[in-house]
Amino acid sequence: PLLNEFFNEKPTWDVFRQFLWGSAFMVTPVLESDTDTVQGYVPNARWFDYHTGQDIGVRGTFHEFDAPLYKINLHVRGGYILPCQEPAQNTFYSRQNYMRLIVAADDNHMAQGSLFWDDGETIDTYEKNLYLSVQFNLNKNTLTSTILNSGYVNENEMRLGFINIWGIGTTTVKEVTLIYNGNQESLKFVSEPTKEILTIDLTTNIVTINEPIEITWS
């Protein structure tokens, strides 16, 4: 429930038509027929439209969202980093796809997130130390990762392909550099300053999430 994260906002106490997936992913579904809008409460934080990556510019109030048949209203909370992976027919194939990071900056251009990753089949991987744990951190114009535990490594399913950074400001990014395994290299990227979005493409680089990274842009 929204009140789990935003208890000090009394309107969240009565919200039962929306929910959070974790701390940072808000779902506002349509629960009625014959409508193309849905009303939801937007807690007092920075929120981004999951489909566009843009700041919705609404917080601390109820809001009516467009809800056509092809769209579910999904929003990502600023200040959080969400690891994800392209889907496939089943998890065997999806785990072979590139990993992606959604980096949603807060008002101070900061964000944090983490990833727990195991083989998806073995029981008690935490107790047996058979897992990978990674901490991600955004500080202004620098994104870093720290490996907290490397008890499971399979580089075929740990390739980092894309990073979507939302809410970084309206300054045009001219250069993005990566420090990885002691080497520095330039990365391909698309800067959209009017949308405050930076999209980084690592598919031509060999980068896996089981090794620490440092990415800086200017």
What does this structure look like?
The protein has 218 residues and is mainly beta. It contains two helices and 17 strands. The longest helix is centred in the N-terminal third of the chain and has 4 residues, at 2-5.
Helices and strands in order:
Layout: H1 2-5, E1 19-21, E2 25-28, E3 37-42, E4 47-49, E5 61-66, E6 73-77, E7 80-85, H2 91-94, E8 99-104, E9 110-117, E10 132-139, E11 142-150, E12 160-166, E13 176-180, E14 183-186, E15 188-192, E16 197-201, E17 213-217
Parallel strand pairs: 8-12
Antiparallel strand pairs: 1-2, 2-6, 3-5, 4-6, 7-8, 9-10, 10-11, 11-17, 12-16, 13-14, 13-17, 15-16
Which keywords apply here?
218 residues; mainly beta; 6-stranded antiparallel beta sheet; 5-stranded mixed beta sheet; 2 helices; 4% helix
Gist?
The protein contains two helices and 17 strands.
Rg, nearest Å:
19 Å
Order of helices and strands: HEEEEEEEHEEEEEEEEEE
Overall geometric form: globular
Helical content stands at: under 10%
Average pLDDT level: 96
Number of helices: 2
Low-pLDDT ranges: none
Distance linking N and C termini: 39 Å
Q: Which structural class is indicated by helix and strand composition?
A: mainly beta
Question: β content, as a range?
Answer: 35-45%
